[in-house]
């Protein structure tokens, strides 16, 4: 009897290991296939990431020489802001998983509202003669996009902690006005560094913004897989998250690859949209 139990346990472990191996293999093959199919170079890869999630309108993007950044001004700000918010909370909050306080929610609502208003105002400018509140600029798109990125990060980070860790701290991941002000000042500093349009910094921020897309999608899909497989709140250390993270990353890559394929099939170019 004991031998049978031992044999069955060994068989289940072997099947589990082979299943994990297949997941990692599939994700690796998907990544390699995508890398070989998209434009060459680091910026070419970043362009392909932006191509899947952003209109990349030429006039609404910052430029590195004669080429637009991988994401438009608004999306550049949004994903830079999101990555900044996630990194800031990872540095200061650890495994705290509580949502922002009510007072902070008001600030986040203001940032989201500014993003919506500027987005709608910019959209109306696509139609000659349409009413609008003001003349849109890439600077305003960048700033309001960064604000929205912070909003996303301040919700995604605690949601991730609530989903993955067996023992998490239920207190707010970001509390008190001092860290909030520090985060806002850091976001404004990043926006200024983008706004001065130094070629090296633009190159760097172009890559980082594309990385922000991948990080956010991976986190969201990791949460999705943990919920789908009913594996929430079982991890105590990062090594136990390798498989869920791989599945989340693979799903993010699959989404980007499919959207790239559809858009390229429709347009025949890796360029963004050109107005005028």
Detailed description of the structure:
- By secondary structure, the chain is mainly α.
- The protein is 70% helix and 4% strand.
- It has one domain.
- It has a two-stranded antiparallel sheet with strand order 1-2.
- A hairpin with a 2-residue loop joins strand 1 and strand 2.
- The mean pLDDT is 91.
Defining traits:
70% helix; 276 residues
The topology string of helices and strands comes to HHEEHEHHEHHH
Report low-confidence residues grouped into runs of 5 or more: none
Question: What's the helical proportion of residues?
Answer: 55-70%
Largest sheet: 2 strands, antiparallel
Number of helices: 8
Question: Whole-number average pLDDT?
Answer: 91
Strand content: under 5%
Read across the widest sheet, the strand sequence of neighbours is: 1-2
The overall number of domains is 1
Instruction: Give the total of beta strands.
Output: 4
* Alpha-carbon distance between the two ends: 78 Å
Helix/strand-derived category reads mainly alpha
**Gyration radius, in Å:** 21 Å
Basic shape? globular
Q: How are the elements arranged and paired?
A:
Elements: H1 2-37, H2 42-53, E1 63-64, E2 67-68, H3 73-92, E3 96-98, H4 102-124, H5 138-164, E4 169-172, H6 177-195, H7 199-228, H8 242-267
Parallel strand pairs: 3-4
Antiparallel strand pairs: 1-2
Helix pairs in contact: 1-8, 2-7, 2-8, 3-5, 3-6, 3-7, 4-5, 5-6, 5-7, 7-8
């Amino acid at each position: 009897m004991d031998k049978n139990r031992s044999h069955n346990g060994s068989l289940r472990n072997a099947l589990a290991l082979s299943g994990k191996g297949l997941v990692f293999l599939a994700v690796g093959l998907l990544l390699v296939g995508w890398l070989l199919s998209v434009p060459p170079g680091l910026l070419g890869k970043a362009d392909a990431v932006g191509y899947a999630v952003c209109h990349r309108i030429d006039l609404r993007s910052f430029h590195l020489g004669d080429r637009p950044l991988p994401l438009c001004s608004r999306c550049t700000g949004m994903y830079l802001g999101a990555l900044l918010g996630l990194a800031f909370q990872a540095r200061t909050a650890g495994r705290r998983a509580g949502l922002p306080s009510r007072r902070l929610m008001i600030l986040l609502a203001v940032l989201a509202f500014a993003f919506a208003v500027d987005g709608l105002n910019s959209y109306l400018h696509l139609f000659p003669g349409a009413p609008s509140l003001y003349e849109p600029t890439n600077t305003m798109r960048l700033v309001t996009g960064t604000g929205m990125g912070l909003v996303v990060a301040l919700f995604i980070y605690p949601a991730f902690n609530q989903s993955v860790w067996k023992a998490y701290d239920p207190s707010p991941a970001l509390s008190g006005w001092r860290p909030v002000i520090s985060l806002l000042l850091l976001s404004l500093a990043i926006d200024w560094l983008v706004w001065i349009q130094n070629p090296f910094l633009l190159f760097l921020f172009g890559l980082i913004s594309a990385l922000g897309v991948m990080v956010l999608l991976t986190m969201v899909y990791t949460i999705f897989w943990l919920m789908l497989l009913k594996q929430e709140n079982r991890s105590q250390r990062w090594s136990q998250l390798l498989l869920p993270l791989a599945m989340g990353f693979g799903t993010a890559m699959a989404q980007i690859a499919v959207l790239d394929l559809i858009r390229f099939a429709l347009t025949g170019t890796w360029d963004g949209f050109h107005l005028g």
